[in-house]
Design brief:
The chain is mostly helical. It has helices at 2-48, 57-76. The longest helix has 47 residues, at 2-48. The chain is elongated.
């Protein structure tokens, strides 16, 4: 019985094969010239500095709606455009060696270039930060070793060979 089943599938494929070949030939006849024309158009757009694929009408409408919405928001809140102070604090972590020794590959940092202390989270506006933070790491205190160590490069001498 299985033999007759496979024999039937074979007959179906033999009967359908000419139609499949005609379909593949039609795709090739119409698809390859369209591909070549579109390739030339995209190359021309590329070398002109334009976008290779134009935007759809729906995308253009969506961009217009978004731009109008942004313009309305900007017009409604002029105080939002006022220059706000931008406080950026750079955090630098220095891991001192035990017993207060300085890493030979890192020059010491002058104290006037340190980061200003931050006020506590529950401080009132305008309150000055505390004079010292007892929980901050102190130079010379024993700290755990870093997770990863990287070799230091001595750049004070001339070129190495």
């Amino acid at each position: 019985m299985a033999f007759l089943k496979w024999f039937g599938w074979g007959i179906l494929w033999v009967l359908l094969l000419p139609f499949v070949l005609v379909g593949v030939a039609l795709v090739a006849v119409f698809g390859i010239p369209v591909f070549l024309v579109e390739l030339v158009i995209m190359l021309v757009h590329f070398f002109r500095g334009e976008k290779c694929f134009p935007m759809f009408q729906e995308d253009v409408k969506a961009m217009d709606i978004l731009q109008r919405s942004l313009d309305e928001q900007r017009a409604a809140s002029p105080q939002a455009q006022a220059q706000q102070p931008n406080n950026v604090y750079v955090q630098q972590n220095f891991y001192p060696y035990p017993n207060g020794q300085q890493n030979p590959g890192i020059p010491p940092v002058p104290p006037q270039y340190g980061n200003p202390p931050l006020p506590p989270a529950n401080a009132a506006p305008g309150q000055l930060p505390p004079a010292s933070n007892p929980h901050a790491p102190q130079i010379g205190a024993t700290t755990p070793p870093p997770i990863a160590t990287f070799p230091t490069i001595d750049l004070t001498e001339g070129p190495h060979e």
